[in-house]
Structures are given as C-alpha cells and as structure tokens.
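Archive entry. Fields below.
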Amino acid sequence: MVRFSGRLLVGLGQGLVGLVGAIGTQAMVLSSAIQATLRGECDLSELRSALVRLGLGSIPVIVSTAVFVGGLMVVQSAPLLSRFGAESYLGWGAGFGILREVGPVLTGLMISGRVGSNNTAELGTLTVTEQVDGLRALAIDPAGYLVAPRVWAIIVTTVVGTVVSMVVALLGAAAAGLFLLHVHPATFYNGLTSGMLSWMDALHGLAKALAFGIVIATSSTAFGLGAKGGPPGVGRAVGAGVVSTAVLIFAMDALVSITSRVE
Amino acid sequence: MTSRRSSGGPGGTSAGGSGSSLGPDEPEGASSRRSLRGSDFALALSTVQDGDVQPMPGFVLPHDESRASLMVTVRATLSALSHTEGSAVVAQAYEIGVRSLPFLCLVLAFVGGIIVYQAGIQAMRIVPDTSGIGPGYIELLVRDLAANLTGLMLATRVGASIAAELGSMKVTDQLDAMRLCQTDPVAHLVAPRFLACFLVTPIVTIIAGACALASGTAVGAVAFDIRPQNFLDPRFVTVGAVVTGMAKSVAFGLAIPLVSAHAGLYTRIGSQGVGDATTRAVVGSSIAVIVLGFFIGAILHVLLGGA
Amino acid sequence: MISIDRVYKSFESPVLRGVTLNARPGRLLGLVGPPGAGKTLLLRAVAGLTEVDAGRIKILGHEMVQSSDKTKRVLQSSIGMLFQNVALFDFMTVGQNVAFPLQRRGEAPSEVRERVRRELEEVGLAGFEERHPSWLSGGQRRRVGIARAAITRPPILLYDEPAAGLDPVTTSRTFALLQKQRDRLGSTLIVISSDIDRLLPVTDEVAVMHEGRILAQGTEAEVRAWGDPVIDQFLEGRIDGPL
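PREDICTED_STRUCTURE:
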C-alpha cells in the first residue's frame, strides 16, 4: 500500500513535470506561429486546405455529439428537477450548463479527439518520414508552411465549432426535455431567456472555446512534430497528445472559471 | 559451431552424429514430406475443432475491408472469450487500470471542484442556501458524472493505446505472423483487453469518483464555508442512481475496447495508418460513451421514474 | 509441392495477372524481379494470408484458394514464413518469439526450450534467448525470423528478402543456411531476394517475375538463355533497356 502510493506520487510528480514541459513547448509553437504570420509567411493555400479538412470535416462529429450532449444534460438533471417539481427551470439549467461548461469542454474534447489527433497524426507522419527536414532543406520554413496554417485553422474550428455545438446542444436539450420531462419548448425557451442567463454566460463559454482552441492547436502540433520511431511512434504521439490535451483543457477550464469570478 | 557448418553439406545425412539439430522425431529423407497424404490431411482436419476456428477479422484484407464491420469484430471477440488466458487479462488489467488511475483521479478531482464551485456561485445568486449543494452533487456524481467523465477519459487514453498497439502490430505484419502460427490475434490480443477493460472500468470509476467527492468537499468548505459533515449527505442518492451509474460504467467498459480494437485491426498500411487508427479509436469511443450515456440514462430514467 | 495456376489479384489496379509457377519438392526456388512485380503478394497468397481473385494454388496437393478456414489452418501448419519486415513480436523476447510456433502446438516446455536453443545456435545467435528484438540489428532480427519460421520443421518455407540490408558475409551465411534447410529437412523453399548475384548460385530453379506475370522459370542457365530483353537487363543490372 505504501509502495503503491509512493509510485502513485512519483507518477503524479512525473506527470506534473511533463505537463510543465509540454506547456513550454506549446508556448513556443504558438509564438513561432505568430511570428511566422507577422512575417507574412503563413501559407494561404495550406490555411484554406486545413480549414476545409480539419474544420468542415469535424462538423458531422460536432453536431452529432452536441445533440446527445444536450440530451445528456437533460437526463442528468431530470431526477433533480422532478424531485423539486422544477421542470420549468430546465431551460435555465440546460442553458447554464451548456453555455458555460459542458458545451465548451465537451466540444473541446471532441475536437481534440477528432481534429487534434488528426493533426498530430499528419505532422507525426511528416516528421518520422523526415519530410519536415526535407522542407527545411528546401529553405521552406516549417513554421510558416506547416505550423501557422494549422494552428489558426484549429483555433477557428474550435471557436466556430463550439458555437455550433452550443446551439445544437440546446436544441437537443429542448427535444429531450419535451420527450422525457414533458417540458414544452416554449417553457424551455422562457427558462433560457428569462434573465437569469445573460450574454455574459455565452461569452464565458466562448472565452473558454478560444483557450481550448489554442491548447488543442499547440499541443497537437507539438506532439506531432516530436514523434519518433516510425508508424508506432506516430501512434504513440497521438495517444500521448490526446491525453495531455485533455488534461490541459480541464486545467484551462478551471483557470477561466475561477478568474471570471470577477463578474 | 564451425564444425557443424562444415559437416552440413549437400545431401548430408546426419548419421555421422554431428548434426544434432535434428531430434529423434525427424525422419531423415524427405519423401514423407512431399505430399500431405490424403489420410494425414483428413486426420488433421478432423482434429481441428470447429470451435477453434473463428473468423479472424484482423486478416480481412484491403479489398475485403468493405465487408469489415464492427459486428464482425464484436462477434469474433465474444466467441474468443472462452479460450482467453487469464494471465493475459490480468496483465492488461494492470496496464489499463493502474496506468490510467493518476490521470483519471486528476481530471475528476478538477471537474468535481469546478462543478461544486459553479453550483455554489449560482446558488448564491438565486437563493443563498448552500445546503442542497452537497447532496445534489453526490447524487449527480453517483448517477452520472463519475461514469460519464471516467468513460470519456478512458475512451481517450485506453482507446488510443489499444488502437496504437494493435495498429502497429498490423502494419508490421505481426498479426499475420501470428495467424501463420495458428494463433488467432483476436483471442490472443483483443479478448484479454476486452475483458480487462470490462472488469477495470467500474473499479476505476469508483476510485476516481471518490477523488471527485474529496475535491468537491474541499471546494465546498474553502469557497463556501460548507462544513464537510453537511456536504457529505447522501440523502438524495437512490438505488436507481447507483444502478444507472454502474450500468453506464459497465457499458463503457464494453464499448471502448471493442471500438478501439476494431480501429486497430483495420489500420491502413502506410506511415499515417497507425495515427489515423488511433484517431478513429478516440473519436469512435468518445461518441460511443456519449451516446450510450444518454440512452442508458434516458431509459433508466423512464423505467425507474426518476424517484 | 506448390503449384500456382493462373492467379489473378487486383487491388485498385491489377497486381497479379495470371501467375503460373511450380515449386518442386525439396528444391530451392528463387523468385526475383523488379520492384512492384508482385512477389511479396504472391508469397502471401501462397501462405493463405491474402485471398486471390482467380486461379488455383495447390499446397501439398490441396487447394488453398477459397478454402475453408479449417483447411487453411491445416495447410498453414505446414508452412513457415519470413516476412519482409520480419514481423517479430515486439512484446516478447527473442526466445519467446522463436518458441511461439512450438508452444501453439502444445509441446512440452522443456522440449520447447531445448529446440529453441538449438535453432538459435543454427542461425548463429546462440544465447540470445533473453534479448529483446528492438535491441538487435537488422541482420540479427532476420536470423531470429528465420529461426522462428523453421523451428516447426515445416515442409514449406517461404522467405521474403532474408538478406535485405545485410553485409556480404552475413548474406552468404544466410543463403548457406537456407541451403542447409533444404538439404537437412528436405523442405521446399521459395526465396525472394534482390541480391541476385548471391541468390542465384544457391537456387535449384529461378523464376523471374515482372508486372504480375512470370516471365521465365528454370535453372539459372536456362533463364539466362531465355532471350527476353527484360530478363537480360534485370539479371545483368544494366541501366538501359526496357525496364
């Protein structure tokens, strides 16, 4: 028991050190992307293709997940609401949860899974097959050609995707509320707009989406570029990247939640 | 070693005694090997039990992959359960359970704290009564949060690792090499992971849930001055809630390894194949967790009346 | 022993276009040709790992194509194969790798240990049982793969590039090892290799494959005298020519 907790602590400690290192690497990724763009080197055709591939490609996943997330919110709060006969509060409850928390976080996690790991896989493959070095040999700076377009595309995808997912989730919650709790859509809408929720809550969610987008973009890029050891190394990078990004998403979530206590 | 080499010349009968690499069970002279005689073949065929030979989905090859469906993998895994080695299951259970636990506890503690924090702020906004937060949080945790969040995190971590392992083995032909040695990779690799995940998921869900409980209590005490004795009140927790939570974690433990193993077994050849398979596993498992979570919650809510 | 008759296989485009080939019992058949000819795919079809679109493949007198899983299993137990990327199990030690085929047949552990030891000695890797595949050089991994393929004394051995990336001395040693397997065990071997100069002398017969077809099959002398410009250019390694 003592040894187990000892190992647990060591594991946690190593994890923390790794986390700090990862954050440092990601900050570098972000800064190199910014610098490359300011120098005008951000490749526009790559940006366009990244937006299409990563952005449009993730819409189906985002939409289908959001519907069920909305339903899940209702299912989660159903017993509590039934107990207190507070069904009319469903609109507020679902809205609150979706706009501030669940919407951004779950969308962030799904985008990390779909877009982030795709990005890590692509960049990882380019790295282990030495194509990135090949780019440098051709005097093409990878920062402008590879990193910047993907970083911006992912940030845009995350923010836009979160907006889409919040809307869809609310619709899904309304539908679930109707079928499971017999809450009329009008009541739902009232609860949503009754004034206990404000645009500040939506902005809160969007701020998180932006933070998550930055995290996903930089983390997936960093892991991809650091892949080593052939196809298995690419797989490892994807796995590690996805896990690390998830932890960072939650950390960012806590950070934004706490610092926005000011309002 | 040199003497062995020089004596093993063409047409060498090892009657001279130095060719000890052939044991007494090897008849010299290859005439018996030139054809698998009809009777030998029939005998061999009859000793292979029907139950031993399952469709081996890992070897459905590229042009057949249009026929490859998740159901094939599921069926193959389930029918392989009877000849799975217990030691393999235990090894996988350690991998999955112990390796994921720090990550899971961290995340659940985080999220639990945030939820209590948000709930507290809202409660202060509307009705400054914080007495319901603790019980409400515990009920949410038991019924939904622990299972859903653990499921999602496991989908990410375990899903990625299963797909990456199986995928690497596929692109390096290790799965084919196994098949040539009469070993079904589904029985040897997938089934142990499936069983291990199924057994371990509920356990880690409970442990991680406990961490979330601890952090929620701490936040309640520090931010809102709720005394732990008041916070830790399970009065809202019903049997239905416990059943729902457990049902979810069991379902997740079944779905995650199946979806991820399927992605790994059908990895495409090429440098990006393993990375893509990992992505498919993470996305597929996450969606499975969310969708299953919704349906199980909805069905049990309707059945048990939410009371 | 192995008779391949007009085998066709396409993925998005045709890869095998009517391959006809015969491997006589107890003989070492070298399968050579330019890259992309379909050699590896053919070997995998022979091993029953890839299902072909048309044609017949008879192993030891029994049909492999479209056969039941049961039949395939029985036939595969008579085949040992070295894959192009060796395919050693990377979660096992060298000893466990070589022991694996025997263990799957339910042999006694003491017997298995002894045969593994002997087999590793045969390939010049005595005492390597506890090492891990990832610590070995390419040539050593290939030799472990050869040991694993041969340990069950199968009547048929299929080798895909057994000497790729090896230095000349190790290459010669490897081919000498294959000859010994043919002689000692009376096995039938099909060997794919791009090292023509070292492969041809040890073969009993050669088949030249190009673009999914067999251009020629016969002894080395017969094939060299075939008169096909593609074969000539390939065997001589000339730059100019139809290839």
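CURATOR_NOTE: Residues 1-38, 49-66 of chain B have pLDDT under 50 and may be disordered.
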